[in-house]
Backbone:
């Protein structure tokens, strides 16, 4: 039995799409999985026969009894997604989905693909966390589910442990989902990294431009990483999606050695509280007060937790654990048990 991981080949971007999938493929390769390279492209105008031929070429080495870990979605179109699993069914390979996004939760008014019906065709589905698992179960997902808990984040160059944290806010990623940067009225300074958003940043925002995904973690200054998306015309459901989503920028901040600030009742708040990785607030109006109330002892404890935890993320701990759990489920037909 051989194990395979789909490796999505696409241009680097300043967001999470490229980095998250690339990291998972590389961490999987470290524990013996072999890569199946899938180039991201627009298949809308490609004939079905051509898509079938493309998938035949990608999966030529896969044999009966192998396990294929499929990073979903590929964004290569619905036909590509469906044809791929059909090919694996014919080959007799077992399929495990590694979910990066659920579109009907992100864009509920503009999603036609039945993701639940599709994911039910996999032997195991690895989702972001227990909250995503629950909403998918309630929506009809009835296959085996494993929670990733948080995305890992590979760092090419060694990052030294942070010895202190400045009480300022760092924002990195898609700034278009951070409408509060139009008018930052808080006393806490803010530094923003990312592509220039579609709106004008407020005069109190220190804008530093976009950094390449492979170098951003090494270049963030000391501060608190803020993960706080707002609804926009392009991202209609960001605030509700945060109840189920693991924001990749949280992994970026932690890998860089920054404690994080996240909203209460979001999915990611659970792991932040559990491992003392930052602070949880109800509203950005609470930001200045909450930061001012952190004393030196609390800051030191938080910094130790973050410096330790980031080593897990940069080593791919959560990816490797989920893959091992999925393999046990596929082979044994039930989840691993404590003995």
Residues:
């Amino acid at each position: 039995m051989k194990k395979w991981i789909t490796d999505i080949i696409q241009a680097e971007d300043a967001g999470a799409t490229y980095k998250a999938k690339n990291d998972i493929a590389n961490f999987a390769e470290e524990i013996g999985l072999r890569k199946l390279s899938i180039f991201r492209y627009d298949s809308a105008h490609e004939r079905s026969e051509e898509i079938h031929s493309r998938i035949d070429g990608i999966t030529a080495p896969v044999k009966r009894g192998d396990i294929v870990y499929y990073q979903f979605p590929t964004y290569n179109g619905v036909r590509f997604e469906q044809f791929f699993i059909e090919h694996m069914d014919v080959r007799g390979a077992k399929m495990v989905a590694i979910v990066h996004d659920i579109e009907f939760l992100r864009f509920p008014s503009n999603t036609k693909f039945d993701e639940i019906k599709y994911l039910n065709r996999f032997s195991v589905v690895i989702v972001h966390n227990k909250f995503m698992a629950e909403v998918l179960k309630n929506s009809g997902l009835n296959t085996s589910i494993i929670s990733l808990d948080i995305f890992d984040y590979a760092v090419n160059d060694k990052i030294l442990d942070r010895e202190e944290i400045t009480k300022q806010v760092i924002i990195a990623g898609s700034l278009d989902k951070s409408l509060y940067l139009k008018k930052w009225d808080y006393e806490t300074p803010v530094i923003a990294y990312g592509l220039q958003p579609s709106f004008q940043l407020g005069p109190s925002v220190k804008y530093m431009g976009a950094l390449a995904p492979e170098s951003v973690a090494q270049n963030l200054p000391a501060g608190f990483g803020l993960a706080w998306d707002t609804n926009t015309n392009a991202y209609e459901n960001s605030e509700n999606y945060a109840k189920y989503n693991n924001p990749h920028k949280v992994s970026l901040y932690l890998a860089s050695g920054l404690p994080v600030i996240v909203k209460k009742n979001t999915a990611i708040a659970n792991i932040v509280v559990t491992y003392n990785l930052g602070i949880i607030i109800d509203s950005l109006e609470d930001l200045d007060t909450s930061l001012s109330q952190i004393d030196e002892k609390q800051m030191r404890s938080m910094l130790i937790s973050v410096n330790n935890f980031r080593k897990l993320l940069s080593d791919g701990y959560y990816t490797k654990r989920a893959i091992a759990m999925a393999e046990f489920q596929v082979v044994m037909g039930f989840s691993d048990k404590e003995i």
Notes: The chain is about 35% helix and 15% strand. The mean pLDDT is 95. Residues 156 and 215 are 8 Å apart (CA to CA).
